[in-house]
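Q: I'm a student working through a structural biology exercise. My instructor gave each of us a protein and asked us to get a predicted structure, then write a short paragraph describing it. Mine is DAO-domain-containing protein. I'm not confident about reading structure output yet, so if you can add a plain explanation after the tokens, that would really help. Here is the sequence I was given:
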Amino acid sequence: MPLTRRTPRKPPVGCTPSEAVAHSAAFIQWICVPYSELEVPITRPNSNRNMASGLAPTLRPLSEGMEVDAKPATLPHKKPSVSFWTARARQSDLIGHAAPFPHEADCVIIGSGMSGTLAAYFILLAEPDLPHGVVMLEAREAINAATACNGGHCRPDCYRGYSPYKKLVGKVQAMKILKNEMDTLHLVEKLVSEENIDCDFWRGRSFDAMMTDDCTADFRSSYDEYIKDAGNIDQVEWIEDKAAAQKATRLVNVKAAASFPASSFYPYKFTSHLLKRAMSMGLNLQIHTPATAVTAGDGFWMIDTPSGTIRTHKVLHATNGYASAIFPEFVGKIVPYYGQCSSIIPTKAFSGKNMLKHTMSLYEHRGDSTYLIQRSTDGTIILGGGEFVYREEHINNCDDSKVMPAITELLRNVMKDNFDGWGEEAHGEGFERDWAGIQGYANRSGILNCNAQLTSRSVDRRWSALYRRLSRKRRPVRVRRLSRSRYGAYCDLRKRGGYVDVGAALGGHRIARVLPDYQGTTGPQGQDVRT
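A: Happy to help. First, here is the predicted structure for DAO-domain-containing protein. I'll explain a few features afterward.
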């Protein structure tokens, strides 16, 4: 049966989860925006005070004062660097997967990372009998971008970001962002348990290790402000004493530390399990099939690929830092940003019973950190960072086929330079490999102006409810915005309507959501939606 032409209805507009799961398990909260009579031109920054309560940045923002050239991303490089995660997954039957190319679909998901996969999983759980099914387009092999390159974290922000969020969007929304980060951790754990996913899932605690006095003062200020505003810090332990912080973290020069609940896992295994589940429910996965253009047809979206054109009513955009390669509206709004990780074989002093009992991030200041986990299954240390090295070369960089030697050298020495008792490395210990991945960062100046009437309507957090609304409802719903503090998703409120944007993540998996209350004198008219 061919797809039925729907007029004059437009395809729905909306936004979804991000990356999942770890720096980034940012992934399973949704946003949905109005899609009837929607006019959403992209505008320059606006200083109207009525817009001050707009959506906060939920992608990790670029540092203030950093210039960004407005140029589109490229499509993913055909030969990305091989990460620790993908190097150990060469037996996967997803590699080289082949399926008949469809020319019609009820829904097309662009991107096979954690966010796109979770979208497919929840949609098909809710709607197993879609007549034309769900199609996933992937430019490379499945799960071969940020999800396969991150640091293996699922590390919620339990206090650190409160003050910056409060400054941007107010107390109520800042509280919701931090609560959502913890909710995401619980959701990841729940999925692992319910689906019986073999992904080396570990649950414990993580440290914010403050390496300078300025960083300590900054984080402590946010911690104190969160307490003052009645934030829940029951699970946060602040270690002010320097000697106690050094003992807890095993870091030589740490000034203070804070610990909180967190987890780590194998992101490729987690995502591939759920992707196979979605395929068992009917998902049609097309690898090496990039979407090259998405155009509005007569009641449909037409998606061009090298293999042909697909006609569909709904598009879920899950391409993270590559967003502007397809949609020019994202140029300068979602900025591709290079990241680099490494794997380290520990010395005997950090092996066996002497392994690290926690994950952590080392902060010189809020904008720069080195993050690491030690895998409970084999002791390998996954370590990433070095953003402050040649930072200009990180921005608008879509090339994950090679690494930056200066960052390689930095990562090679992090353990021996910072950890007490690391010791001399025997042949085969220490640095093993490193790899690159492309993140999606927000340009602080990027604003989308939403002139549509928005109403405060609750949207169910599960994809089943989201998909039903996208499929059947024709009325405005509450705007939701999701992110992974480090690398997340972004909502494209397009004038043409009809896209759901999902972001994946390189690093930890976290999602932040902001739910502005569209009430009172400010109202929704002219509301800013900030990247």
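A: Here are two points you could use in your paragraph. The CA atoms of residues 16 and 347 lie 42 Å apart. The chain has a mean pLDDT of 76. It's a good idea to check both against the output above yourself.
Q: Great, thank you!
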